[in-house]
Design a protein that fits this description.
about 325 residues; alpha/beta; D-Maltodextrin-Binding Protein, domain 2; 2 domains; six-stranded mixed β-sheet; five-stranded mixed β-sheet
Length: about 325
Amino acid sequence: MNTRRFFALTVFASMLASALVTAPPAAQAQEWPKRQPVRVIVPLTAGSAIDLVGRLVFDQVSKQIGQTVVIENRSGASQTLGAGAVAKADPDGYTILVAGSALAVVPSTMKLSFNVLSDLTAVGSLANVPLVMVVNPAKGYKTLKDFVAAAKAAGGKITYGSGGRGDSTHLAAERFRLAAGFDGLYVPFRGAPEVLTEIMAERLDFYMAAAAPAMPLVSGGKLQALAVASAKRSIALPDVPTTTEAGYANSDYEFWVAAFAPAATPRAIVDRLNQEIVKALETPVVRDRLRKIGGAPTPITAQAFAHQFKREVDINARLVKAVGLQPK
């Protein structure tokens, strides 16, 4: 074999080897989902607002892709236990995270073993679930301004809680408190049921609760909804004003539920997942069931949600600093 021919064959072999190395991700992206199950990790307990939304949307996704989708609840450490597991999972589209807006908070409040921005990739938003400011009806507040006046008169003794230090319900309360200009005493709890119980027992003054667990108690007269923290009124509570409408600028705080995947997941798989989520959110059954738990579907591209997520990480970092929370 002459030298020129040998060199040509060597180059060809090298190119072929390179193609074989780079082909699998592309082929994998085109074939997804070729096996089952697709595992969706929810970093909170079953029955939480995030769990309800995740199950509702991915039940529909399962029907669309013709593959089994298994929901796995892995709660703990302000959603970071489950989120960390997904960040370290194989980036093949078969392990997905469904998390809430607290994921944009934890980089500022906790020392993490992973980076939410570089170790996870945003797949898309599922829904916004409004946070409702609830109090005990026995307090006798007619409006949000009545509450704020009482809070200012209390001289820092007003109490408020959340299902975990630094979670979305905590920061929503802090954002409102700062906007309204009153001091208070924050009390952390293990979860939403405990906080709601304390409000009903009049041992806690207010709570920015996710609409899903709060609405039955509001409709049953056990809780009073003074305002919602979202930018727009809730479809489920159309007569309840937003905190901004009530006169407190820069007091809104969006509570969202979204999907993420390991960072190295091929772009084609991420885009396919996003398309399936958007398709699911457009089905009447999903939209109707979301409305029943106070949620509003939020179809959005993966790229657009990635920008939103990065922006919220930065905004929450400034809010955590203003409140004085220290990472732990």
